[in-house]
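Bumping my old thread because nobody answered last time. Still need a sequence for this structure:
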């Protein structure tokens, strides 16, 4: 993976060679995130998108507090999906005005915390709107709200669809005018709309189409709004390549289309901030997962590297986090990068289940106990998206380097 340099056959992360980093961290397995790569990704995106577009980081992708703190200094806002993530965002120093909170089942206690903090709440049901009105009255602070819309279209070729058709997220577009009337009647401070159609998309045309349709839908809904639209969150869905044959997302057409949207918004929604919210695209490629080979076994001719980490730390690399067909994440022996990858090797973890597979018959150099297996593209949906308590092994450490 070309984003990480190689020195003397070793991967270098944040300027530190891998074996030295493992010693510094003090244990395997661990995740390491490269600050410089995180910063470079945000800079690349700013370059490609019009200046009028605000960039938010979706904390769900990687909630490690130090990483969120680093991201908070780079982006225009943070999106959270629970009171736990809200606390991380506030601790990271993000201004409450720049935090928004989405999620289909916000508990009343979470709503109250968010109202007290002064963040923007993406309202996802009529019940939630009424609960927010009660909380506002009780606390004496107005709830700032945007309406999360379940659009009447899908994000095509998306890894995970989160809008269009029947969905638990947001309110169906056709019911939004009634919800807007309710928001007005309840006296909530209406600020705008949130549309999020899906995740992990590598086709620029599909993202362009979804953003364009989202903008047009928001323009129509704005006619029923109780106050001018001040924020329009057009979602995200930018993917990263994981598997052979996948290529990087082409940002140029997305930037060009967003420039058109920004121009139209200046007259049709004057004063509205345009936001996109990205998780995986911002952090996924800056992170690796590292585990150490405990044993090398050959079973009926098949080589297995048995490691001290696996599915319990990195569910998505094992293929069990939403994938339909299991494919290998890019992987390497991080301390033997100059050796040719010639041996079909399966990398497995220590769990007593055949699901604990990090690489299935991948061409890797000869490796054995003590060597370091690296799984790339691991900066998003890794540690926090894995069942770390499963089978009672130690948790992975995370380091920002
Ligand atoms: C999950 C999610 C995101 C982040 O998605 P990525 O694919 O990581 O960019 C952003 N917004 C909302 C509402 C989400 O649910």
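Sorry it took so long. Here it is:
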């Amino acid at each position: 993976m070309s984003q990480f340099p190689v020195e003397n056959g070793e991967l270098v992360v944040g300027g530190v060679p891998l074996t030295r980093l493992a010693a510094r961290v003090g244990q395997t397995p661990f995740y390491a995130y490269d600050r410089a790569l995180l910063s470079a990704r945000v800079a690349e995106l700013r370059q490609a998108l019009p200046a009028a577009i605000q960039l938010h980081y979706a904390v769900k992708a990687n909630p490690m507090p130090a990483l969120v703190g680093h991201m908070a200094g780079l982006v225009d806002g943070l999106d959270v999906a629970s009171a736990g993530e809200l606390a991380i965002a506030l601790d990271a120093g993000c201004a409450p005005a720049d935090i928004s909170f989405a999620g289909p089942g916000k508990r009343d206690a979470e709503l109250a915390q968010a109202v007290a903090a002064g963040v923007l709440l993406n309202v996802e049901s009529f019940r939630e709107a009424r609960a927010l009105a009660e909380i506002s009255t009780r606390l004496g602070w107005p709830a700032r709200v945007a309406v999360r819309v379940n659009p009447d279209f899908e994000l095509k070729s998306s890894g995970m669809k989160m809008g269009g058709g029947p969905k638990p997220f947001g309110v169906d577009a056709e019911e939004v005018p009634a919800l807007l009337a309710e928001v007005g009647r309840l006296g909530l401070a209406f600020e705008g709309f949130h549309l999020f159609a899906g995740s992990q998309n590598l086709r620029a045309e599909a993202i362009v189409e979804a953003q364009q349709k989202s903008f047009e839908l928001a323009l129509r809904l704005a006619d029923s709004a109780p106050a001018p639209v001040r924020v329009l969150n057009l979602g995200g869905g930018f993917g990263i390549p994981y598997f052979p044959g996948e290529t990087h997302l082409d940002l140029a057409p997305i930037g060009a289309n967003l420039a058109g949207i920004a121009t139209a918004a200046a007259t049709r929604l004057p004063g509205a901030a345009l936001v996109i919210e990205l998780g995986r695209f911002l952090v996924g490629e800056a992170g690796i997962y590292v585990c150490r080979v405990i044993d090398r076994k050959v079973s009926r001719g098949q080589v297995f590297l048995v490691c001290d980490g696996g599915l319990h730390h990195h569910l998505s690399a094992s293929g069990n986090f939403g994938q339909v067909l299991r494919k290998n994440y890019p992987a390497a022996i991080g301390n033997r990068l100059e050796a040719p990858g010639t041996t079909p090797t399966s990398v497995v973890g220590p769990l007593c289940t055949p699901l604990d597979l990090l690489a299935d018959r991948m061409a890797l150099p000869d490796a054995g106990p003590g060597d370091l297996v690296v799984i790339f593209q691991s900066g998003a949906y890794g540690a926090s998206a894995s069942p770390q308590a499963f089978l009672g092994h130690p948790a992975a450490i995370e380091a920002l380097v």
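The first strand starts at residue 6 and ends at 7. Let me know if any region looks off to you.
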